[in-house]
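Intended use. Records such as the Glutamine amidotransferase type-2 domain-containing protein entry shown here are meant for training and evaluating sequence-to-structure methods. They are not intended to support clinical decisions.
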Amino acid sequence: MCGIFAICHRGCDLRFDVLKARELSKRQAHRGPDFSGFYCDESTGDILCHERLAIVDLSITQPIMGTGARHQVIHNGEIYNHESLRKNELKEMPLRTKCDSEVIIFLYEKFREGSMCNLLDGVFAFALCFDGEFLAARDPIGVKQMYYGIDKHGRYFFRLSDVEPVVGEYDIKMFVLTCTSAI
């Protein structure tokens, strides 16, 4: 039951205040008391915040980096088939941990499209930044709910399950896109 908060700046030149993003993320610290992580893509202004409840590979923190500094993912949920993905689809990739979340960023690096989510068996919601690209997705059934909002400047906000910390600040809607049609 981690907490994720992400900001996507598509079509918006006005950058979101990094300190405000961290404060909004901290409002969900009860969802992930083990670690608080943060990433900001300096070129796009996209932000990933994560409040972690450690279940698999307790030493790992999020966001998790892929092969490049601008390849980052935050994730809530569980990828049931992560060991199989490591042995098959990702056997040539330089995975560094046993964490199920790590397979997400490496699958995106390999396939470079949202349809890579079709390979994931599990309950999940995630957001990732990849060299200026941004992807947010959840499991097809929506076990791990995700909400989104758009502010008056056109910035997208993504949040998991717990929307109460941002109610009143943004117009929040249920994120109903599946993996194959993710933003």
